[in-house]
Specification:
This protein is of the alpha+beta class and about 525 residues long. It is built from 16 helices and 19 strands. The chain has helices at about 5-25, 55-65, 110-120, 135-140, 170, 185, 240-245, 260-265, 295-305, 310-315, 345-355, 375-390, 400-410, 430-435, 455-465, 470-485; strands spanning about 35-40, 70, 75-80, 80-85, 90-95, 150-155, 155-160, 200-210, 210-215, 230-235, 255, 275-285, 320-325, 365-370, 395-400, 415-420, 490-500, 505, 525. Strands 11, 12, 13, 16 and 17 form a five-stranded antiparallel β-sheet that branches. The longest helix is centred in the N-terminal third of the chain and has 21 residues, at about 5-25. It is globular, with a radius of gyration of 23 Å.
Amino acid sequence: MRQTASSCVATLLALALALTSVAGAQEARKSGGTLRAVFTTDPPTLDPAEATDLTSAAVIRQVFDALLELDDRLRPQLALAASVTTSTDQRVYTFRLRSGVRFHNGRELRAADVKYSFERAARGKRPWVFDKISGARDVIAGRAADMTGLRVIDDLTVEIRLDRPFAPFLYLMAYDAASVVPREAAEGRGGFASHPVGTGAFRFASWRRDDQLVLERFPGHFRGPAALDRVVFRIIPAEITRFNEYRAGQLDLSDIPTGQCQSVQRDPHLRGDVAIWPTLGTQAVRFNVERAPFDDARVRRAIAHAIDPAIIVDRLLERCVTPARGLLPPALPGYNPEVKRLALDRELARRLLAESGHAGGKGLNPLAYHFNTSDTNQRIAELLQAQLKEIGLALELRRLDWAAHLKLVDGGSAGFFRQAWIADYPDPENFVTVLFHSKNAGAPGNTSRYRNPKVDRLLDEGDAMAPGRARDARYHEAEQTVIDDAAWVSLYHYSSRALIKPYVKGLERSPQSTAPEFLAPLRKVWLER
């Protein structure tokens, strides 16, 4: 028998209180003005079913809504859903939608839109968001058009049935891929990825590639109009240019340039603008284990033992980030402080290369290293190049813009490449399972194409368990196995290092946000000037 679980009642009570406090805070806001933000590159897509990156997400979260959203403390809150109940066996979730919600094209939201959006997105770039729903795997594989576990009860009620309990399921309902889209726009001829239509507080206005993307306030948003008239995202790849534009008063938000974290904090004109906070992200290098020579674990381990992240953390980033041991960042629930990275040992690295038949880099030089456009990534690549030279490996640095890099990595053409991960929701499953389970091999997240039956078993067990030490232990063992196999070499855990003008009010500093691509809900932002 389906009923409202006590844990869900507590959650909904917290949601109601949170929403009430937000509404109260909004009364003091000033309306009007343009927020001038910045990106390092164009978003690859504005379609929530296809987005896999922060730049796209920063726009998508303003244009679209999901059933739920996460607040700045990463707690689920009601969004398009007016209520949610769960069955006693934790497998059936019933969402009651708000009435009167409208898409930017004027049409009213219905439960059928949720069903359409989920089934469409399940065939997109993040199928793992939906594969817990009964029948979803048949849709993902193209064997069926409908998910058997997704049922429209009436115009404002949708029921979701899972194959088995999944502890962080409510987090998934707040993720970008679970955004609700109108079928007529998604299947229209306007190019949905570049002219999106959602229910969000801001609607798409214009986009000049490599220049700027503009959003404007949607007066019909179900929470009421946002304070800002518009948001302008300028596209500025160079750190120093972004910094100079910020100092000149042409940007309201930006990032702190690499190598200037300490000096900016000492600058009397800027130190009041500095904001630094830990985030749920890890910067790393990664191998496609299906491509030679990285199909040989000895080659991967040799590279891992030759890399010294301390040079990056201490010198390049001035200790404004956290040194990394494993995959999971310290700010993430379930973090394992006992995880061990492959130690810096270049003599061992040379021996491993010799054992693999590549003594002194014989037969390997040069090795291509792929990374995406950014000054920080360029300087990290140059440091890696110098370090690997110590064991006889010559790196050929290949720099691409973000969209091209992502396409190369997702398609499997890159063998050795830069890849970071910022959690979509605060649970270890979103790191270890998404990035290393064989079912996600390729574009869904496991771009290493790593396949290990032991790791799969540990992750399957952990994914089905209730939160607690036993569940964490599964993820910890899987994490250590991946590190020992050198499919991924962590460099550091992110901190958001931001510059924010004092007159920008209401900008949430979420552990998921890394400047300059803030993932905060900009409907809460207002300008005091």
